[in-house]
Amino acid sequence: MKTKLHFIVGMVLVAIITLTGCEETQGSATLRLRLTDDSRSRATSREVISPPGQSLLISGYTVSGTGPNGNTFSVSTNSTQVDINGLVIGTWEIGVTGFNQQGTAMARGTASHHLTTSDNTVEVVLNEFIGEGSVNIGFDWIDPAYPNIALDLKLKAQGGVEETITEGKTLFPASASARYEAVLPTGSYDLAFSLYSNGTRIAGGVVALRILDGYTSQEEITILVDQETPEATGLQISTDVVDPVLGTIQGVPATILPNTSVTATFSRGGGGGPGAVMVDWYLDGTHLASGNSIEFSTYTGPHRLDAIAKTEHLGSVGSETLPFRATVESQQGIPVVVSSVTDGELDAQQQPYWLTGVTDTAFLRDGRLLIASGNGLQLCEIRKDRLVVLKNFTSTGAATSPQTDPYPTNGITDITIDTVDNIVCTTARELGTVVLYNYDATAKELHKIVALDTSSSLWDGAIGNVALNTSLKTLYVVDPVANILHFAMYGTEGIGSFKWFGLFSPEIEVVDPQRITISSDGSRLAMACPTNRTFHTYKLSIDPITGNPKVFEELHTTVAAGLASGPYDIRIVGNLLQLALEDGLQLYRFPDTGSEWIQEQKISIDTTRAIDLAFDSTFGNCWILHGGSQPKVAKSTLINGVPIYDDGSMDTGSFVASGISYSPKGNFLSIYGDNRLMLLRISDG
């Protein structure tokens, strides 16, 4: 290792004071001061650690003197010669102080001289440094791996004796560094440093140090360790580098059901050297867990499962990737539960679900879900098979009139959607309130079109559900007390004048109608009356002359005495009618002749009540919500309008839902009730 030897050449500044003008006049004389600075002719062979921004050369002087009878003088000069006139002959005490360019006092000297006309020369030697300063030096040897590290510092003042530093030195082995901080008298020093490991000197050096009055000399020194051992080193080479772990992921087929647990296992095939293998599992780049196997589930769509396997040896990290798809296509429409939430539970954005006393749900044209509950209306979006709350709508108060309330949500029991024009209709049966909204999908907003209630002079109290005929753009409201069917045309701008039709039949009486529905083609209205076990159908049309909607009586039918109680719900597809009774579904056909619908057969094999039904947009498939001790959702295919029961079913466990809704996108169902909601997948779309 090469080293450099640095030298500092000390400087002695001599001030020569000479008396000139040798005539003695009235006991006075002229003092001529000559200052000689020989530092410029001297070189330094070592860089000096000194205060930043401070010159180390003297560039100016102050000279002062005290003489006989209290006489004094004081002058400042940058010149090496100055004349001082009129000094009293006698003994003078003379002092000289040298300053650098920044005005910092560097050194001083004094002399005593008896001034006469014959003795007019005096020398003043600047041989005393002034004041004290501080030092702050950091040492860094980069590598903290050296054991039992020690740093030895020795300080030698110019012209003095070398001393070992014991105070002001702090060692930081963990960061391979040390620091020396101290206050020193002004002057020039040599600072020697030696670095030891296990008692062996491994590096060292010497630096020159200059201390100025009131300033800090600072530096950061990097110690380069390049120390040879005194003896030859025996070297034995071994390696811990191995081949990467190889293996396969087992237990996960190419397709799985969404939200259904599967177990993946890593099977080691080789590599990695001896020892146990450690496996980290990642799904679509997100770490799941560690272990030889993992149980997981995921949402509908394509996915990637990665296993990162390794041992304790270098180079052992290996990976295995398994692409797969979560899909319900193999179910052929039989639902799969992908999400189940309860009231107050939080979504992914920490927003609570409004499911207190949930009464209805309805899918909008864009696939979003509108939920009606005791809290109001809640708009949700489905992301990765999970409901995400977008916006809440609630009434300003129970006493607020629906006419002025922007969101009259009190007591909502039903939601009906016109997916063609994005119109939402809500009904509060007990309050007799019907509200129409325009749904703005972009703004995620409901804009009230009209609100109808008991103050609208149409009905006086509770009403039945509202049916929207999207083919005829007509709204129908049944008044079960007065046995009147109210109807009017509606649109995005408002609602037309209401007409009414009396529900009075001389053959079979209409008693307390509870449920009305519109047929798949919009040509019929069906009405269920469970109190007297009857159902009734009416023909619907638009008057070609006036353009107003019209209602005509069609058939009135009594449920046969041998059948179960009901009907609770009624649906018409073409000339076929499905009736929900206490023990399941019954199929009726429109008669070629006669005044009543003809019972064909019992559709369902179950003996439990069909609580609700949902049809797809083409009326080719139907999903039936069953209650009882084993609640379920059954899938049924319609062939020429005739249901083929059943294609398969999905158990809902202990959850007995009160209703079911179908998404117009054909991918989801929702079932709801008892402060709870389940989201069901029926296709991958």
Describe the structure.
The protein has 685 residues and is mostly beta strands. Among the domains are: 13-129, Sandwich (Immunoglobulin-like); 132-222, Immunoglobulin-like (Sandwich); 246-326, Sandwich (Immunoglobulin-like), CATH 2.60.40.10. Helix content is 0%, strand content 54%. It contains no helices and 55 strands. The strands form 13 sheets. Strands 3-17-16-12-13 form a 5-stranded mixed sheet, with no helix packed on it. A 5-stranded antiparallel sheet has the order 5-4-7-8-10, with no helix packed on it. A hairpin with a 2-residue loop joins strand 46 and strand 47.
Which terms summarize this structure?
Immunoglobulin-like, five-stranded mixed beta sheet, 685 residues, mainly beta, five-stranded antiparallel beta sheet
Widest sheet: strand ordering: 3-17-16-12-13
CATH superfamily of the domain at 13-129: Immunoglobulins
Please give the CATH architecture of the domain at 13-129.
Sandwich
Based on secondary structure, the structural category is: mainly beta
Radius of gyration, whole Å: 51 Å
For this structure, the quaternary state is single chain
Helix content: under 10%
Low-pLDDT stretches are 1-26, 36-46
Topology-level CATH name of the domain at 13-129: Immunoglobulin-like
Largest sheet: 5 strands, mixed
Q: What is the general shape?
A: elongated
The CATH class of the domain at 13-129:
Mainly Beta
Number of strands: 55
Distance between the termini: 74 Å
Number of helices: 0
Mean pLDDT across all amino acids: 87
As a percent range, the share of strand residues is over 45%
